[in-house]
Amino acid sequence: MFNTKLPRHTTRKVWVGNIAIGGDAPVVVQSMTNTDTADIAGTTEQTYALWRAGSEMVRITVNTLEAAQAVPHIRDALAKMGCDVPLIGDFHFNGHKLLTSVPECAEALAKYRINPGNVGKGSKRDEQYAAMIETACRYNKPVRIGVNWGSLDQAHLARMMDENAQRAQPFEPEWVMREALITSALESAQKAEEIGLPRDKIILSCKLSGVQDLISTYRELASRSDYPLHLGLTEAGMGSKGIVASTAALSVLLQEGIGDTIRISLTPAPGGDRSQEVIVAQEILQTMGLRSFTPMVVACPGCGRTTSTVFQHLAQDIQRYLRDQMPTWRNQYPGVEAMHVAVMGCVVNGPGESKHANIGISLPGTGEVPVAPVYVDGQKTVTLKGEHIAEEFQAIVEDYVHSHYGANAPAITNKTIPIHSI
Predict the structure, then answer these.
(1) Among 14, 56, 253, 263, which residue has the least CB neighbours within 10 Å?
(2) Distance, CA of 104 to CA of 106 (rounded, Å)
(3) Whose CA is closest to 152, among 122, 189, 174, 184?
(4) How many separate helices (H) and strands (E) can be counted in the chain?
(5) Residues annotated within a binding site
(6) Which residue ranges are tagged as binding site for [4Fe-4S] cluster?
(7) Span of the secretion signal (predicted)?
(8) Whole-number Å distance between alpha carbons of 279 and 177
(9) Which whole number is the average pLDDT over 267-278?
């Protein structure tokens, strides 16, 4: 037997609304809107869509008086839609003014995100930072102290560069930058506690855009604190580049037990679906075996035996159908998120993979008999033929969900795909 239980870096538990981060809580998925927050209808609509896709927290930009005034209305509109997703306020430069002048905003938000590099300069820095922390204390709100390499406090970095230059053997500039990020986060957290924010109200992040830099920074940050850590590769990029880079960085850290909440910072295509970043975050956690969010579809890549595209379309349609159903199924069919469906394209691995899944179908490959055996919990139950295989297979999946995960379903153990078959 392989020991697949991953270690977990020990952190304190922080509650963000009704969502726990850190401690023994599962890794939480979050995302961020890209609408103008002052646009109440647009921001409400996108927040609701992100929540429906599975985002457990949603961050919104609060950068103007109009945006701050819109926050409580967005919160109320979401509540009327049955959406209780915690809202996180993203503050830069003027957060101290907005939180003070619009107390309804400060109260409606479930968490504040503060960037130490953007709270002020010179003598105003401590005063403005303290004002934001005092507001968090007043309304009993947690805070993410989020340091970014692109907006690192330059005075802090310059001081560390000067200190490094005086060493007999100076460190490389890259090391100093990473250390500046870490110390900025830790010192800011210490100041927050001195002001009065409880330790179990603080989450940290040190986000960079380089994979190896991010891994090194978070390893060191985890070794020096027990605050919950927010993971994310900042400015990850578009499409496959952003997905691959984020997956490469976060998977290494998650494998080592580092990270309590994640966000995938994808640049969407113009007019693209913002919820893609939620799906990627979920798939990282689910494929690593850390959480289950939606039934997973196993499908072969295709080869010379599978010149027909029937299995490709079926796999795509079934995966889309399962994900579309999850907002309803989460409460109606508990446990369904761990279900596995196999859609295979020929007889080489088709029957074997189908037997390992809860439900599997082995479609005929090139030159094979035009029939598709279906396996349910490892047993062949029916053979589909003709032009309506896709519709008939989807009906079988629906029946399985109703009978195995419904209110009157018997207790079952979901099949797990063996390591050797992946």
Answers:
(1) 253
(2) 5
(3) 184
(4) 13, 17
(5) 300, 303, 346, 353
(6) 300, 303, 346, 353
(7) none
(8) 32
(9) 92
CA–CA gap between residue 418 and residue 370 (Å, rounded) = 29
CB neighbours of residue 81 within 10 Å = 13
**Are 220 and 256 a contacting pair, CB within 8 Å?**
no
Separation of alpha carbons 303 and 369, rounded Å: 17
Please report the pLDDT score of residue 171 as a whole number.
96
Task: Specify the fold of 296-405.
Answer: Sulfite Reductase Hemoprotein; domain 1 (3.30.413)
Q: How far is CA 318 from CA 161, 295, 350, 395, in A?
A: 55, 10, 17, 11
Please tell me the distance from the alpha carbon of residue 154 to that of residue 167, in angstroms, as a whole number: 20
Q: Which tokens hold the place of 216? A: 């090194």
pLDDT, tens digit, 9 for 90 and up, residues 358-415: 999 999 999 899 999 999 999 999 999 998 999 999 999 999 999 999 987 765 444 4
pLDDT tens-place string over residues 141-189:
999 999 998 999 888 999 999 999 999 999 999 999 999 999 999 999 9
Tell me the per-residue pLDDT of 311-336, one tens digit each, with 9 for 90 and over. Answer: 899 999 999 999 999 999 999 999 99
Beta-sheet pairing, 87-91 with 111-114? parallel
Mean of the per-residue pLDDT values for the chain?
94
Structure tokens at 89: 């306020």
pLDDT at 278: 98
| pLDDT value at residue 411 | 58
Pick the closest to residue 17 from 116, 135, 91, 112 (CA basis). 112
Residue 252 is predicted with a pLDDT of 98
Here the tokens at position 148 are 């970014």
Q: Please enumerate in sequence order all residues whose Cβ is within 8 A of that of 241, keeping only pairs 6 or more positions apart, or say none.
A: none
- Give how far the C-alpha of residue 263 lies from the chain's centroid of Cα atoms, to the nearest Å: 4
pTM of the predicted structure, to 2 decimals: 0.93
Phi, psi angles (nearest 5°) of residue 262 = -130, 150
Which pLDDT score is estimated for 2? Answer: 46
The DSSP 8-state label assigned to residue 229 in this structure reads: B
Topology of domain 6-288, CATH = TIM Barrel (3.20.20)
Q: And the tokens for 395? A: 């009906």
Instruction: Give the SS3 label for residue 179.
Output: helix
Q: At what angle do helices 40-53 and 276-287 cross, to 10 degrees?
A: 20
Q: Where are the domains of the chain?
A: 6-288, 296-405
Q: Which residues contact residue 79 at a Cβ distance below 8 angstroms, ignoring those fewer than 6 apart?
A: none
